[in-house]
Every structure is written in structure tokens, then in C-alpha cells.
Amino acid sequence: MNSRTTVERTSDRELVATRTFDGPARMVFEAWTKPELIMRWWAPAASGMSFLSCETDVQTGGSYRFVFGHPAFEQPMAFFGRYIEVTPPSRLVWTNDEEHEAVTTVTFEERDGKTLVVVHDLYPSKEALDGAIAAESTGAWPEQFEELDELLATLGASV
Fold first, then answer.
1. Prediction pTM value
2. What's the order of all strands across the beta sheet hosting 77-87?
3. Distance between CA 53 and CA 38 in Å, rounded?
């Protein structure tokens, strides 16, 4: 399977990123839900951002809060929201309770030991998605997924 990331605007309000990872859905899902693993791939090294803290309560109705630092920021930046649906190891749905207020759905489909991950961001309006694109907050998936690939290779070696 191809491990290249694709990012596509599928409508005025939707953005979809896909990639196939080398590893079972259980392992990929854990990388999306365990704070100690999230902190190892969510903020790519090339971005210059550092992950300062990661709090998750990964259950339906639970919440998350990610705090990042960057030399260009005057103060740390927090991203937070709540989990709408958690179905291990196949589906996560959460709110993004910051500026653009998207709802993110991530599915994990295992095929022959590899996992197809589809990230679907639904924005409340065309203007919100346009704003996210202009702020470049939608363009990090390829870099993040490269970091996740590296993490999964490490986890696979340690299993």
C-alpha cells in the first residue's frame, strides 16, 4: 500500500487527509490516544514547535488539551476540545474548540497489517475553512504523518 499522504478539499466546508501506515490499527489508534505517544509525533520537529503538555481523557464525552510553544509565540498556544465518539481501534471524533471550530473524524481501517487512516475535518462554514487554510493550520498533516510513520516503526520494533 502507498504511504503517501493526500490532503484534499472535498467541499466548501470539508478537508480530508489520508495515509496508510505500516502497523495494525490497534497500534496506530494508541499513537492517536496516548499522551506520551501523541507528544512524539503531533508537532513535527521541522515546525519549530515544542509540545509543552498533552492532557487527554479519551472516552466519549472526555476532553483534550494540547499546549505548544514556538519561538515566534509570545506565549504558549493551547488547542482543546472534547471527544464526541471513541470507538477503539476504529474511530475517533472530536471537536476543535478554538478559532475555526471544526469537528474532526478519524477512521482506522486495518488491511493486511497496515492501517488506512482517514482524517475528515468538517468546518462550520466555507469562511472557517478558508480561514484555517489561510492560517496554514490545515497543511501540517504530511509532516505530522511522517513523524507518526517514524514513531510506529519504533513501536513495531519494541513490540
1. 0.90
2. 6-9, 14-22, 114-122, 103-111, 91-95, 77-87, 63-69, 50-56
3. 10
What pLDDT was estimated at residue 97?
80
* Helix, strand, coil tally for the chain in percent (to 5): 25, 40, 35
Cell of 45: 520537529
The values of phi and psi at residue 13, to 5°, are -120, 0
Domains of the chain: 6-150 (3.30.530.20)
Can you tell me the distance from the alpha carbon of 86 to that of 106, in angstroms, rounded to the nearest whole number?
A: 10
Residue 111: enclosing H or E segment and its boundaries?
strand 103-111
Among 29, 80, 73, residue whose Cα is nearest residue 54: 80
